[in-house]
Design a protein that fits this description.
By secondary structure, this protein is α+β, with helices and mostly antiparallel strands. The chain folds into three domains: 57 residues, no CATH class; 73 residues, no CATH class; 40 residues, no CATH class. Helix content is 31%, strand content 17%. The strands form three sheets. Strands 1-2-3-4 form a four-stranded antiparallel β-sheet. Strands 5-6 form a two-stranded antiparallel sheet. The termini are far apart.
């Protein structure tokens, strides 16, 4: 049996090894790497050690990163949502990453493959106007914990939900917006500007 070599922290060309990934379908050892350009990708250990892979593909196209799959959907909204999900959980250069990483929220291994994510999305009610929502806000991005939701549904599920008391009742902002059939984003922006709740919900556009 070959001796296992831990590559964590090692540098191969423009790639810095971050952590161990699942083996590929042929049982080849793989590692999650961060390229100097900021992209995260998974590569085979033997390709790294032999020098066959030196970047995510941004230099010479010698490797295909998870964000450069040849599926012909890179310009679609679905691809954009998938890429944003990966970046906010795994790219330490994004502002959101710290919030997700400190809570241990990850993207499941299956969904690192865009094609598998796309299949799940299309089989579970995806539409361009919907966003991916974690049912358990402290859980991972994985099929059993995700759904496609409109802005109000997702806002109502946020752990940082804003509870507002109005006319003697306490509800989330999303619940109030639904009750008054208002525009969630418009009301949210008004509140951010410092409007009182009644004016934000019922007032004329500023």
């Amino acid at each position: 049996m070959r001796e296992f070599i831990n590559l964590t922290g090692k540098k191969f060309g423009k790639l810095t090894v971050m952590e161990r990934a699942d083996n590929d379908k042929n049982k080849n050892t793989q590692w999650v790497c961060k390229c100097d350009c900021g992209k995260i990708a998974v590569f085979r250990a033997d390709h790294l050690k032999k020098g066959a892979t030196k970047s995510c593909g941004c230099s010479k196209g010698e490797a295909i990163s998870v964000s450069k799959l040849k599926h012909g959907m890179r310009r679609t909204k679905l691809y954009g949502k998938w890429n944003s999900m990966i970046q906010r959980c795994e790219n330490p250069n994004t502002e959101q990453a710290k919030l997700y990483q400190i809570r241990g929220i990850k993207v499941c291994n299956e969904w690192h493959d865009f094609e598998k994510f796309k299949d799940w999305a299309l089989q579970n009610g995806y539409a361009d106007n919907l966003t991916i929502d974690r049912i358990d806000n402290n859980g991972n991005y994985e099929p059993s914990n995700c759904r496609w939701a409109d802005l109000i549904t997702q806002a109502n599920n946020k752990r940082t939900n804003r509870i507002i008391e109005f006319n003697g009742e306490k509800k989330t902002l999303a619940q109030w917006v639904r009750e008054y059939n208002a525009d969630y984003r418009k009301v949210w922006l008004r509140l951010k500007r410092g409007w009182d709740f009644e004016r934000a919900m019922l007032g004329d556009v500023a």
